[in-house]
Amino acid sequence: MRARSALVYTVLRLLAFVVPLVILLLFPVFQELPWLAAIFAALIGLSLSLLFLRRPLDDVTGGLAERRAQRQAAGRRTGAETDADAEDAVVDATRPDGEPPIAR
């Protein structure tokens, strides 16, 4: 994943929320109820991002999938996988002989 594509997507998502929020806060009814303006701005931002930000989202998720595939091809493990193996080793070492393994 390139940092640029993630940054572009993040900025566009923020703009999809902030611009409608500012416009809605210009109306007198929303000046009295700013939480309602925030809810409407969030719904508008979600709609805009679903309609117009599909390509930047695909770039970000494609980059993440590519990084994960490269990591798996190189045999590198994530920190969570290494940690799970260490915990399993401790549990196995403290288990009395002859006891069946814990089902997961």
The radius of gyration is 24 Å
Q: Number of DSSP helices?
A: 5
The total beta strand count reads 0
Output the structural class: mainly alpha
- The succession of helices and strands, N to C, reads HHHHH
Low-confidence blocks of residues? none
Largest sheet: none
Helical content stands at over 70%
Shape: elongated
Strand content: under 5%
- Average pLDDT confidence is 86
For the termini, the CA-CA separation is 33 Å
Give a verbal description of the structure.
The chain is mainly alpha-helical and 104 residues long. The protein is 80% helix and 0% strand. The chain contains five helices and no strands. It has helices at residues 3-25, 28-32, 34-52, 54-73, 79-94. α1 packs antiparallel against α4. The longest helix has 23 residues, at 3-25. The protein is elongated. The mean pLDDT is 86.
